[in-house]
What we know:
Low-confidence stretches: 22-41
Oligomer: single chain
Largest sheet: 6 strands, antiparallel, barrel
Strand order of the largest sheet: 2-11-14-13-12-15
Distance between the termini: 76 Å
Helix content: 10-25%
Number of helices: 4
Amino acid sequence: MKKTLITVGIVAVVIFLLALPKLNLFKKGEEAQQGAPGSGGNRALTVDALVLKPSHLDNKLNVTGSVLANESLELKSEVSGKITSISFREGKQVKKGDLLIQTDDDEILAQLTKQKYNRKLNEDNEFRQRKLLEKDAISQEEYDNALNRLNTTEADIQLLETQLSKTRIRAPFDGVIGLRFVSEGAYISSSTVIATLYNISPAKIDFAIPGRYSTQVAPGKKIRFTIESDLKIYEGEVYAIEPRIDPDTRTLKIRALADNKNGNLLPGQFVKVELILQSSENAILVPTEAVIPEQEGKKVYVLENGKAKEVKVETGIRTANMLEILSGLKPGDTLLTTGILQLRAGMGIQISKLD
């Protein structure tokens, strides 16, 4: 019985060994290993690709700043006196030359009237003395005294008229009057702040940039900016640059002008400024993830004759998700953008998506 069982077992083993090549158990494993990406087999790696085209690129600098009035001042009186009238309304537009404040001028007017009477008398006296001098009826000294009295009176009148003008405070430029701090009947001096006056159209945008960019900015450069709680993008133009770099902060102060006809920009507002340093219409931009950093530089993979080719590149400006290529690539090259970690030079490539 034992011999029979042994014989049956041997026959079964022989049959299994004879049938094993037809089962392909080991061949499938070998084929799978040969076809695996990166195993050195002939199977192509499926990736996405991008055909490079020239693009517009702005070299931008993002900084913060603030809004300034085009012109602003605190209204004060040159002379002391009691306010007799207020001719403006708070928060309203005023024109250059508009009367804003009148202070008491009764005393000056009285003195001016007196001097005008004196001028009439001295003019008549000078006229008579001149006629007498022409007839040699008086000396030159007597005529000179008469002329001097007339000229002195004229000077006194001019002085009083100047003092009279200082009792009237007028708007020095077009603008918006702010809140007033005095009332009619109040006594003011040269140190009393009456109100503030602002010209806010156009508005000035004040900001600073790192000093290393000083050679890349000049009057005429465009800026874009936003203000708090407003999604609108405003535009402006640089008009003035401080001729020195601040030694403490190593920054360069810059001012730009922006249209403000609607009055949305108010002095003191915080702004986020985007300064365009340089623009290029033929920049080569690639996705950041397609660039592989190395110890000696950076590289990318391009498609050439159906295979991956390694290319060394130099990069420039980085945007949110793109990187400028300065050398190594040209328009028309097909850049491989996915499967970066599996790619090897000479590997067969199959494109699944081409942009």
